[in-house]
Design brief:
Blueprint: H1 2-20, H2 23-42, H3 44-51, E1 79-87, E2 90-94, E3 97-101, E4 105-110, E5 119-120, H4 129-136, E6 155-159, E7 166-171, E8 181-187
Parallel strand pairs: 1-4, 3-8
Antiparallel strand pairs: 1-2, 4-6, 5-7, 7-8
The structure holds copper (II) ion (CU).
Copper (II) ion (CU) binds next to strand 1.
Length: about 190
């Protein structure tokens, strides 16, 4: 009885071994394994991207053709730094006035006194600028109004690629009454 059982098992094992070595079955098994592997590996990515610092892309907006109004245009030149303060010396951007070239970017950094944000007046920027800026400003809380920044060292970067040359007046929504305003001059 015992011997018979053993030999039966051996035959079964041999058959399984034989069928699992069929090259076509191997290909199918490997393909399934690869697909499962890819799906499992890629799934967490979109979630971690959403939590990542704001990128140049406007996530909520539908993606128009590159160069079209509303499409985010990447910084091609220098990135300038502007700091944001609200302390005993006042609520302010530093520098309050900055001159850049088209294609440059500005990176605002919250130093103290949050919340701060970056918002442009639709009627105090060059004509035709709004639609481009709209596409270049990540995480807007309103038209031409950037995300509310709450943490020290938090940054907000806007590309000035594709925008018309001219003067751009902007402000901080929470500190407008306290005079937190700035000016950007974009040169051709
Ligand atoms: Cu502010």
């Amino acid at each position: 009885m015992l011997r018979l059982g053993n030999s039966n098992n051996r035959v079964k094992t041999r058959m399984l071994t034989k069928s699992s070595m069929d090259p076509r079955l191997m290909v199918v098994a490997l393909t399934v394994a690869a697909l499962v592997g890819c799906g499992g590996g890629e799934k967490p990515k979109p979630e971690s991207t959403a939590a990542a610092p704001p990128s140049a892309a406007a996530p909520a907006a539908p993606a128009p053709a590159a160069g079209a109004p509303g499409a985010a245009q990447a910084i091609t030149g220098k990135t300038w730094d502007v700091k944001m303060y609200a302390d005993e010396k006042g609520s302010r951007f530093d520098p309050v006035s900055i001159t850049i070239k088209r294609g440059d970017g500005i990176r605002w950094t919250l130093v103290n006194g949050p919340p701060h944000n970056v918002a442009f007046w639709n009627d105090s920027i060059p004509s035709g600028a709004a639609s481009v800026l709209q596409g270049n400003m990540p995480d807007q809380v309103g038209p031409l109004s950037g995300t509310m920044m709450t943490n020290p060292n938090q940054t907000y970067t806007v590309s000035f690629a594709g925008v018309p040359a001219g003067t751009y007046h902007y402000y901080c929504v929470p500190h407008l009454a306290l005079g937190m305003k700035g000016v950007i001059t974009v040169q051709q």
